Amino acid sequence: MDREKLKLYLDSQNISPDKSIISSCGTGVTACIIDAALIEAGYTGSSHRVYDGSWTEWAQRVKPEENLIKKK
Predict the structure, then answer these.
(1) What is the per-residue pLDDT across 35-59, written as a single tens digit (0 to 9) for each?
(2) Residue 32 falls in the annotated catalytic set
C-alpha cells in the first residue's frame, strides 16, 4: 500500500496524528507492524509508542487478588 492510501485508511479509522497513539496486541508483533505503518504514513510528528509486551505481558504481571482478569 502506498503512503497516501495508508494515510487515507488511518484517517478513515479516526486515527489522528495530533493525538498520542499506543499500539498493543496479543504479543507485541502486530503492534510493531502498526507502528511501522504510522511511520510510513507520515505520522512522525505524533507521539506514538509500542507496548511490546502487550496483553500477554500484562496478564502475566497482574495479581489474582486485583480481580482484573476474570475467567469464564
Answers:
(1) 999 999 888 766 888 988 888 888 8
(2) no
